[in-house]
């Protein structure tokens, strides 16, 4: 086990509920005023396409949905085990895509902040295969969060034992204990594909390292954390508080 990934694994020494402690943010501040801009025009997608069909992997290992040159750039740091992130996915993502991303005015980039080994496994599984699957799989995880996480809570001892296995086996077995293979098979990811992705320890390490490095550099202390045009929005953690910021930034 390498030192770079050990902090992620060490969270299992506490009850798994503690891994959710960094979910959510404080109260909203002056976010809308901070990113105020002139109204921007819609940008037509390439012929025969929609912007919500366009996905690019960024240099930050984020998955950018929509117009890569959109004048308003929204980034969300999110944990796949975070109830507040799940609430945003349920309440706001469909409207965000329909009203803002599909107009070409706003791009939406998701980046993972990892809140424990179970979260790391989920972050790898949503990445496994074609990049276009990342956003839909993430949304389905959030919309079924209790179902996804309950087996991990119910089988903490077995999950912890899986993490003591050799590098190429630990996450493969961890996903088995957590019941993730059956869940992701419903999303079109076969067990063989999932196991291949989870056996690639270097890819797991990359996700964990990116989470740690970016969280430290950008002072991302909780999820969801939103960034609009390079400015972190303190206290904005819901769709009702984010939408006015996008409108004030010019998506109106």
From TrEMBL:
Its family remark reads: Belongs to the thioredoxin family. DsbA subfamily.
What name does this protein carry? Answer: DsbA family protein
Is-annotated flag, keyword Oxidoreductase? yes
Ranges of residues in domain Thioredoxin-like fold: 62-246
Query: Sorted alphabetically, which keywords does the UniProt record give?
Result: Disulfide bond, Oxidoreductase, Redox-active center, Signal
Q: Where is the signal peptide?
A: 1-28
The record's Pfam families line, in alphabetical order, gives: Thioredoxin_4
Tell me which InterPro entries the record gives: Thioredoxin-like_fold, Thioredoxin-like_sf
């Amino acid at each position: 086990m390498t030192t770079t990934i050990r902090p992620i694994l060490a969270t299992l020494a506490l009850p798994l509920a503690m891994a959710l402690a960094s979910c959510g943010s404080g109260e909203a501040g002056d976010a809308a005023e901070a990113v105020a801009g002139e109204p921007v025009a819609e940008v037509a997608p390439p012929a025969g396409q929609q912007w919500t069909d366009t996905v690019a992997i960024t240099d930050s290992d984020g998955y950018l949905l929509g117009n890569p040159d959109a004048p308003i750039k929204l980034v969300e740091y999110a944990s796949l085990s975070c109830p507040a992130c799940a609430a945003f996915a349920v309440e706001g993502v469909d409207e965000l895509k329909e009203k803002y991303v599909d107009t070409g005015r706003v791009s939406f980039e998701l980046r993972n902040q990892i809140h424990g080994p179970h979260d790391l496994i989920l972050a790898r599984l949503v990445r496994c295969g074609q990049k276009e699957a990342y956003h839909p799989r993430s949304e389905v995880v959030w919309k079924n969060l209790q179902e996804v996480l309950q087996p991990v809570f119910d089988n903490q001892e077995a999950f912890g034992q899986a993490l003591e296995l050799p590098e190429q086996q630990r996450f493969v077995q961890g996903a088995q204990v957590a019941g993730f293979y059956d869940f992701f098979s419903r999303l079109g990811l076969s067990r063989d594909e999932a196991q291949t992705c989870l056996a690639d320890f270097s890819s797991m390490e990359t996700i964990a390292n990116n989470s740690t490095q970016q969280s430290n550099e950008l002072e991302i202390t909780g999820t969801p954390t939103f960034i609009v045009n390079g400015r972190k929005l303190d206290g904005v953690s819901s769709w009702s508080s984010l939408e006015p910021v996008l409108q004030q930034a010019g998506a109106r």
